[in-house]
Automatic annotation (TrEMBL):
Any single Pfam family the record assigns to this protein: Hydrolase_like
Location(s), subcellular: Cytoplasm
Residue numbers binding Zn(2+): 88, 90, 96, 98
GO biological process: carbohydrate metabolic process
Name the UniProt record assigns to this protein: D,D-heptose 1,7-bisphosphate phosphatase
Annotated catalysed reactions: D-glycero-beta-D-manno-heptose 1,7-bisphosphate + H2O = D-glycero-beta-D-manno-heptose 1-phosphate + phosphate
Lineage of source species: Bacteria, Pseudomonadati, Pseudomonadota, Gammaproteobacteria, Pseudomonadales
Organism: Marinobacter mobilis
Site positions per UniProt: Stabilizes the phosphoryl group: 49, 100
Keywords of this entry: Carbohydrate metabolism, Cytoplasm, Hydrolase, Magnesium, Metal-binding, Zinc
Amino acid sequence: MLVILDRDGVINEYDGSYICSPAQWHPLPGSLEAIGQLCGAGFRIAIATNQSGIARGYYDLDTLEAMHDKLRQLLKAHGGTVDFIAYCPHHPDEHCQCRKPATGLFGQIREHYGLGSLTGAVMVGDSRKDLEAGLAVGCDTYLVRTGNGLETEQHLLERPLEGVQVFDNLAAVVDHLLAGKSR
Ligand SMILES: [Mg+2]
Ligand SMILES: [Zn+2]
């Protein structure tokens, strides 16, 4: 089964300010262990991340790659692998087709795996944009309360999104997924 993760606020710490270097990239407690557990159970992992900091000139593609090298290196120690990282480098004003809540990144992921659709894949995010994109492509969509998650959960009370399940963090989502698999 395929699990698509948002990056900032799901895998790594995010307080609303841009993460501009590998030194500023810090995994959330338990997130890499959780991804390692998923991999051990046979799940495939992809990431879909908005990175408008590139268009804004805060960091370049080489630095983004270096952040992702750090992610992959740290994850390896927990037995995890990310197959594919789809990122949107554009500014919101560019109105591209990939910046979530648009679904272009999900299309790239679907093509990477040669899938006809993403129905039944899992999406985990901390922002409404993630949830809207995940739902639009038919994923089982989860909100985590890390990163922007508490704010997003508040917002869902005002403007609900049908079918979103809420968990404290990625580790809790993974516990749920693994429990479902063994059932
Ligand atoms: Mg996020
Ligand atoms: Zn884009």
